């Protein structure tokens, strides 16, 4: 019996286009000015130091910004980049320039699972702050109270089984009682190797890649698949 659901965001609860056409361009436009303006803030300083540690040398603020933009172009899932993107998006959501996309089937099904006693979690390459911002600014209101926890790359890569084993330990449920939802084969493969149950979301307009996981077109179809 499923006791917990862990969901990805991009391509699973939200359209990929929301990330690629709204969030990423906003971050790329505003990240340089944000980092320069807040370079003395403790959190930004920590992330700048981490960028230097990753590349193996101390960087000026402008050099760090150039590295961040290069990582964005490469679509790298690197923690300091994701953390700083989250801080930039926080400003965008607060100003009303950004508003999250959520598929229409997601909110009612999350509420139904929560009401039935299933615990809900998010595991995304976006920072925890970014995850919370997305679910706090949906067309269906603030959904963050539905979730019992959020996981990001500080837990580990989404393509490594140990990340899912860590999540299971934190949740406190055996892996076979946890369902992971994603549209990405490598993530689903890693979760399955860790013992989690998996369902691949194939949203409208998305191509099926023949992944060896149970497939669902929406969250309502998932509910029918997991009920005892």
TrEMBL record:
One of its GO terms (biological process) is L-methionine salvage from methylthioadenosine. Keywords: Amino-acid biosynthesis, Hydrolase, Magnesium, Metal-binding, Methionine biosynthesis. It comes from the Bacteria. The keyword Amino-acid biosynthesis applies. Binds 1 Mg(2+) ion per subunit. Its EC number is 3.1.3.77. GO terms for molecular function: 2,3-diketo-5-methylthiopentyl-1-phosphate enolase activity; 2-hydroxy-3-keto-5-methylthiopentenyl-1-phosphate phosphatase activity; acireductone synthase activity; magnesium ion binding. Pfam families: Hydrolase. CDD domains: HAD_EP. The keyword Magnesium applies. Its cofactor is Mg(2+). It catalyses: 5-methylsulfanyl-2,3-dioxopentyl phosphate + H2O = 1,2-dihydroxy-5-(methylsulfanyl)pent-1-en-3-one + phosphate. Pathway: Amino-acid biosynthesis; L-methionine biosynthesis via salvage pathway; L-methionine from S-methyl-5-thio-alpha-D-ribose 1-phosphate: step 3/6; Amino-acid biosynthesis; L-methionine biosynthesis via salvage pathway; L-methionine from S-methyl-5-thio-alpha-D-ribose 1-phosphate: step 4/6. Bifunctional enzyme that catalyzes the enolization of 2,3-diketo-5-methylthiopentyl-1-phosphate (DK-MTP-1-P) into the intermediate 2-hydroxy-3-keto-5-methylthiopentenyl-1-phosphate (HK-MTPenyl-1-P), which is then dephosphorylated to form the acireductone 1,2-dihydroxy-3-keto-5-methylthiopentene (DHK-MTPene). Monomer. Belongs to the HAD-like hydrolase superfamily. MasA/MtnC family. This is Enolase-phosphatase E1.
